[in-house]
Amino acid sequence: MPDSSAQREFALEVVERLRAAGFEALWAGGCVRDQLLSLAPKDYDVATSAKPDEIRDLFGRRRTLAIGAAFGVITVLGRRRQGQIEVATFRSDADYSDGRHPDHVHFTTAEHDAQRRDFTINGLFFDPVTNEVVDYVGGRDDLAHHRLRAIGDPRLRLGEDKLRLLRAVRFAATFGFTIEPNTLAAIQAMAAEIVTVSAERIGVELRRMFLGPNRAAALNLLRETQLLPHILPEVARLDTAAWSELRRVLTALDRPTFSLALAALLHRTDAAQVATTVGRRLRYTNKVIERASWILAHLPTIRDAQQTPWPRLQRVLAHDGAAELVALHAAIVGPDDPALALVRERLAWPAERLNPPPLIDGSDLISRGLAPSPDFARLLEAVRDAQLLGEIETAADAMMLVQRILAEGLDAQR
Questions:
Q1: 92-101: which pairs have CB atoms within 8 A and are 24 or more residues apart?
Q2: How far apart are CA 107 and CA 85, in angstroms?
Q3: Whose CA, among 21, 111, 288, 339, lies 20 to 30 Å from 181?
Q4: 79-99 residues labelled b (16+ CB within 10 A) or e (exposed)
């Protein structure tokens, strides 16, 4: 993992080396925006007048990757602590026939490069040598006024890359900005076109939104921009009361996993099965989908914890997802719920009390002469229930219970 200070120094080193070779070079995009917002940049990008081959010649073929060379982008590799820096030649873009990537690019000046970027707050440059901001698009003023605005004609800018429709929502929600009226109107008019973007890309943007602390604001903006019915129709159909409650629950979550955030987002929809439908549609991993579905399926167990037999409740609390499940229940009901107090008290038990090792397993049944059969699961479940209820304490007790169940008939235990 790169060290932030080492990466910053490396980004400065890249600029200085390009300058020493006679090229123009500036920091560009998100790192400039974040710095002006007093946020630590996650990474650094450099924009330069040097062409891709010139960048590779300067830094060496072994220290560079040309994966994005067709778009003028070369990745310069630093030491492990420094990470890597994307160095892009100043460019202007041709048409975006696929609504995602330019058909080809033309190398140009810094000013023209700024004009082809998406939003003014992302179109800023910074000279790390002189510590000066270079602003061709009015981004600094928009930052000062907490405003998200497309560069140039919003319909043209958003039409070049339809993913920008969602990125506008994410940036505005993340930074607590308003979307400038003309940009907002363009997003609303083009909202249906978001379906031309791949499901994976939509899923990534939504993941970023709902993992952030301003996830409720993101949800509001998705509805205001009219994007919600096209990407999350299950949520768009909620009535006023359910919508208000959903926003409250999303706000109450504290640094959730994505499975928990997804479960919270969908908890007012029809069924746990919705998590599978949405998860598959947005190409989330099976792990995320299964955990979100499990959380939603077991919310009633936690809600009714005071009336739920301990063996059944124990199996839920012993699950790896129990903490996420309880966190969602807490966000829904608030801190004073009696069922919440009960499950938190039980989760605080030592592991050997909350989830003691089973007294016997299938091999023990076989060793006592029982032939393997589908009834094994029911026998072991009955033994486990008795153990959790404190009715038996040893393996010998467990085998005696098995013999009694078999003598009485397994169906009598149902």
A1: 92/116, 93/160, 96/159, 96/160, 96/161, 99/159, 99/160, 99/161, 99/162, 99/193, 99/196, 99/197, 100/161, 100/162, 100/163, 100/197, 101/71, 101/161
A2: 19
A3: 111
A4: eeebbbbbbbbbbebeeeeeb
Q: Is 93 helix (H, G, I), strand (E, B) or coil?
A: strand
What is the maximum alpha-carbon separation in the chain?
92
Q: How high is the pLDDT of residue 103?
A: 58
Pull the structure tokens for residue 347. Answer: 């989760």
- 65 and 41 inside one domain: yes
Q: What are the C-alpha distances in Å from 204 to residues 53, 198, 350?
A: 32, 10, 38
Considering the domain architecture, whether residues 91 and 16 belong to the same structural domain is answered as yes
Residue 1 and residue 118 share a domain: yes
333 close to 325: Cβ distance less than 8 angstroms: no
Q: Indicate whether this model's pTM tops 0.70.
A: yes
Number of domains forming the structure of the chain: 4
Instruction: Identify which has the larger pLDDT, 326 or 372.
Output: 326
More confident residue, 336 or 97: 336
Q: Parallel, antiparallel, or unpaired for β 84-89 and 45-48?
A: parallel
Q: Which residue has the higher pLDDT, 105 or 36?
A: 36
Give the full edge-to-edge strand order of the sheet including 132-134. Answer: 64-68, 73-77, 84-89, 45-48, 25-28, 125-127, 132-134
Q: What is the pLDDT of residues 5-31, one digit of tens each?
A: 999 999 999 999 999 999 999 999 999
10 Å Cβ neighbour count for 350? Answer: 8
- 400/393 Cα distance (integer angstroms): 11
Q: Is residue 12 part of a domain?
A: yes
Q: Higher pLDDT residue, 410 or 180? A: 180
Beta carbons within 10 angstroms of residue 348's beta carbon: 9
